[in-house]
Amino acid sequence: MASSLIDLYGLTRAELAALVTGWDVSAVHAARLWKYLYLDGAESVAAMGELPARLRARLEAETMFGRLGIGKETHSGDGFTRKYLLALEDAHRIETVLMRYKGRTTACISSQVGCAMGCVFCATGQMGYTRHLTAGEIVAQAVHVDRVLRHTVEENPALAEAGHESPHHRHERLRNIVLMGMGEPLHNYDAVLKAVDILCDGAGMGLGAKKITLSTVGVVPGIVRLADENRQVCLAVSLHGATQAERAALVPAARKWTLDALMDACRYYTTKMDRRIFFEWTLIDGKNDGPEQAHAVGALLKGMPAQVNLIPLNPTSGYAGAPSHNAKKFQDVLAEYDLPSTVRQRRGIDIGAGCGQLAVAE
């Protein structure tokens, strides 16, 4: 059942100002409220002492912001990854992952409860679809990770000097977001892109759009819309098969949006945006990890501004990851087609936080 409270994290800065001024309160206080939400890390209205008492009373009575309960927090043995099982207002749950790399911290964020795409090697896809997340629920995940980083540095000041920020910064910053968690972002286009707008607002978290990567299994209308709206987020397309039959066997959405239609949309995107696309290829032992498939990928993408991101399959039911040496052989073939490629660094596999592993099991 939907809450009757207004989710502050679901409002753009202009919408927040309209709400506050509509209550006959100065827009100056709306700006201060925004700062409390995104720069100060306030976790309650009671912590917003500089706001007028009547505004705080109204906020307490009529709004909420990002109160995502932590059902479970799991730390990977790699020392760089944490996974959070977060509870929504309606008791549904999602997973969010914090990943540290040299020079940056990334949050892997969910866009839906479950997923309707049904990719056969993906744990989330096997859950089925429950509902879309709201823009506020998407933003709240990024804010949650930001709070974790803030508290980590407060509790361990040495991290500020040894980590990713200068000691003069107040806390470690969330620099990157990947919408590669639970769900298909382009199936929930409006909420996802509104959340992106909120997170990129320079008066708030101020993330760069190009520091946000949106991963899709190939929702063709969404790819075209991204181009038509000149959206500057990075686009990653999960390919996994270089023929229609092979792709449809792994990605059921390919039966609706065929490989030909997908490639037409991708060419439209790269031409209109003058940007490359990251094509994701999950290496599955005996399925799509051989030289024949690598040559097929090369022929399919040759001449397109693209980069292939090879992803060793993480443990899920029914499929096995390809041997590591197959990734190098795959890369060697792609190089023959002048296609740059990388092998994704694996993180959080031991806690089910890797690509394709997110679900809501306790």
Give a verbal description of the structure:
The protein is of the alpha/beta class and 362 residues long. The chain has helices at residues 13-22, 27-38, 53-62, 123-127, 135-155, 158-162, 189-200, 220-228, 244-250, 259-273, 291-301, 324-336; strands at residues 6-7, 63-64, 69-75, 81-87, 93-101, 104-108, 112-114, 129-132, 176-179, 212-216, 234-238, 277-283, 306-312, 341-343. The chain folds into 2 domains: 6-64, DNA polymerase, domain 1; 69-351, TIM Barrel (Alpha-Beta Barrel), CATH 3.20.20.70. It is built from 12 helices and 14 strands. It has a 10-stranded mixed beta sheet.
User: What gap, in angstroms, lies between the N and C termini?
Assistant: 23 Å
Structural class: alpha/beta
Weakly predicted, low-confidence segments: 155-170, 356-360
User: What radius of gyration results from the CA coordinates?
Assistant: 21 Å
Taken in chain order, the helices and strands follow as EHHHEEEEEEHEHHEHEHEHHEHEHE
Strand content: 15-25%
Tell me what the CATH architecture of the largest domain is: Alpha-Beta Barrel
The number of distinct structural domains comes to 2
In CATH, the topology of the largest domain is named TIM Barrel
Helical content stands at 25-40%
Arithmetic mean of pLDDT: 87
Count of strand segments: 14
Order of strands, main sheet, comes to 3-4-5-6-9-10-11-12-13-14
Largest sheet: 10 strands, mixed
**Regarding CATH, which class of the largest domain?**
Alpha Beta
**At the fourth CATH level, what is the homologous superfamily of the largest domain?**
Aldolase class I
Q: What is the molecular shape? A: elongated
Number of helices: 12
